[in-house]
Amino acid sequence: MTVRAKALITLYPPDKGGLTHELPFRTQSLVICAHTAREGRELDRPFQAAITADDEEPLVPGERLHVVTIATNDDDAADYLRPGLRFRLWCGHDVGNGIVSRRVI
Predict the structure, then answer these.
(1) Please, which residues bridge with residue 47 across strands?
(2) Minimal CA–CA distance to 83: which of 59, 69, 99?
């Protein structure tokens, strides 16, 4: 089952540890590291996802609040991609963060 969500992401600038190059508007280069509390435990969960900029513009380091659609086939993603949940963007190290605005059916 594919899980889709809308999110706002911020990519850190290179001088703050972000990427030194822009990414195409559709990429699988970033890993989402999501966090949730489940069954009384705090859990972090990385998963692969396709990230697509809704405006079809490149994802540029230093850019704030870019609207994207996240799509993943990860079985646990529905627990982590709920509205209001925050996540980190990882590419060898943290390169940005985001917040889920809504699920897409």
Answers:
(1) 32
(2) 99
DSSP state of 14: G
Sheet of strand 50-53: strand arrangement: 26-27, 50-53, 66-72, 3-11, 94-104, 86-90, 31-38, 41-48
Structure tokens at 105: 């059916």
* pLDDT per residue as tens digits for the range 53-69: 999 999 999 999 999 99
Q: How many residues does the chain have?
A: 105
Q: Mapping DSSP to helix (H, G, I), strand (E, B) and coil, where does residue 97 land?
A: strand
Handedness of CA 1, 37, 93, 7 (dihedral sign): positive
Compute the distance between CA of residue 16 and CA of residue 27 in angstroms, rounded to an integer. Answer: 21
Phi then psi dihedrals of residue 2, to 5 deg: -90, 130
Q: Is the pLDDT of residue 35 over 90?
A: no
Residue in the structure block whose two tokens are 């900029």? 53
pTM for this predicted structure: 0.89
